[in-house]
Design brief:
114 residues; mainly alpha
Length: 114
Amino acid sequence: MTKEAISESSIKPVPLHPAYSVSNIQSKIRTLDGSQVTYSAWVKLFRLHVVAYKVENHIDDTPPPAAKSPEYAQWKELDALVLQWIYSTVSDNILKRLMDTTVARDAWLKLEKQ
């Protein structure tokens, strides 16, 4: 067996993060509009999903990994995904107020204040 074959056979695939399996968050979390779907109902649904899909650390007060750490690239990718979930589950009027946010935690806090 060649050195190349040995090293290729010893490589273990990295499992896909559960959050990547969500294809349509709007079918799981109704749109926050403030009248038919209230903030408290939306938060309850959203929290259930971030826990189930293991991305709760993007909306709670867990600090992100250091930008130079090996975990940062995946954290940044997942944070963009959670931010997309937030953007896609709020009404257009609310979305306008969130568009200046670049991380999920900031959008979450901004919604909480409103």
